[in-house]
Amino acid sequence: MDHQHDAALPLRFALAGPVQAWYRDEPIRLGPPQRRAVLAALLLDAGRVITPDALVDGIWGADPPARPQAAVQVHISVLRRVLEPGRAARQESRVLRSVGRGYLLDVVGIEVDLFLFRHRVAAARAARAQGWDERAATLLRTALEHWDGVALTGLPGPTAELHRVALLEERLTAFEELVEIELERDSDAVPTVELMRLLQDHPHRERLYSLRMRVLQQQGRRGEALAVYTELRSRLVTDLGIEPGPELRRRQRQILAEEATPAAGLPVVPAADPAPNWPSYPGPAPWLVGRDEVVEQVAAALTPGASRPVLVHGVVGVGTTAVALAAVDRVAQRFPGGVRVLSERSGPPGPPPACALLVVDGVHDESVLAARLGVAPDRVVDALRGPVRRGTTVLIVGSNRLRRLTDLLRAEVRPLTEDESWALLAAGLGDERLEREPTVVRELVRRVGGLAAMLVRHAQHLGPRPDWLLTDYYQDLLEQEAADPDWLIDLALEPVVGHAFAPLDATARTVLCVAALLGEREFSRAEVVATGAVSSRQAIRCLEELVDRNVVDSPRPGRYRFHPLLREYGVALASRSGVRPWPVRAFPGGPNVMGCPTAECEGREAG
Length: 607
Prior knowledge:
Belongs to the AfsR/DnrI/RedD regulatory family. This protein is of the alpha/beta class. It is built from 25 helices and 16 strands. A 5-stranded parallel β-sheet has the order 8-9-10-7-11, with helices on both faces. Strands 3-2-1-6 form a 4-stranded mixed β-sheet.
């Protein structure tokens, strides 16, 4: 990739508790509370310019010092010195920059506990939406570990107080979601002690009491659960003059009626989100082997406000999404605005939050990219420039090279090697199982050709069946393929690679079929034309489209080659479409068997 990337600074900050900072893991002496408040304000608005007036109002409120602007400048000067101890006196600060009349704190490559918390909470919610409750619970536990008491402890001023209230709500909501997930899993890991402590600290928070009632209900302690309701009702009526809300009343009625099963989970109340209709980042894919170099390449390009979108592309099924998510996981905390994913399941995007990372997934051609962005196909370039102008970094993921979009940084994900493919299968099945039948494993790996999605499908199918012999499994696959000509398309390959072929028009499908019938070797454009199935102009257009879609590769001008599994798909598609091998005049340097549509073949043979 042709980009520049500064080495990350060895800085860490804590906001989810006392405001603290570390340089190379050594604590930084930040000084008085007002200076910590200046730092916290800049971190909480990282990526945005804050004026001295805004800092004065937020920290001192109605009681500013005699020379407020000078006080801010002193705090900024000291912060610059302690945060970058090796910086020369007149060298521009990389962390705390002056922009116009204000200041901007650049968090690229810097760790902030609050950003990590939000990133993991978002990943947990996305995992839960996918049904991965165990993963969601793990992410929430990890997120909550970042907290150390009350956020922004000891900071003065209205800004800190407002943020403390909002951050407490984020923390309580994440904890409540964790308890809810563990209850739905019927797990023994419900954090009961922490739940009881929070009930004491927040005696009017109804959702915590409802969760406590659910815990007691699942333990068969109905009387105690009803006593919790009675206690809270009395407190609410006495202290606030209100009755319990509908969720608590429903919980009480359910217990009184002795319903056998707990009610459905409580509605998740998400933390405030500047763009709630942008789906959150689901966290890194669990199946990832042998991708360190390309993951690092992509991660290095994902910097806040990057001026060029990044494209991760490769053969359909090769694992572009897994690579992209792994890269995002490394850098997500750089983006205070969060990570948002636009995919087939997401709605149209809203305005991007400042300093966010936008991931556009499943892009198989420009029309899909336009649909994801919610614009007309001829407005894609402008749509991509819009987020860049607003400081949003864009990552595009899919099987298309998008060659007409010239202003992209591109990273290609190549098929796994045989060793990497073996390691991916071992991640799901264990080395011992593979080593008992190495011959059939090597044959399965060879057949798959390094497509991670196919290897994962095999591992997921075999994992719950530890008694199955791999040899029997592979033999059964071969028998299914021999018995049913459509099996390879409909059941084996269509779920993984079919969407790469669906947009092809009739002519492109014909070129795909006749090219697939040319054999496993590298072939030329002239050989496709020699079949008589398409004209030279059609062959050029269609073969280049297949290259754009990563269906075929072009190692040198005018020469092409298939991924083995995609060629098998093309051969099967040829059989279904009525395209069959047809003998033509010998072509110099090529085979004497070509392919053409059946009707044309019969006409030529009759002639």
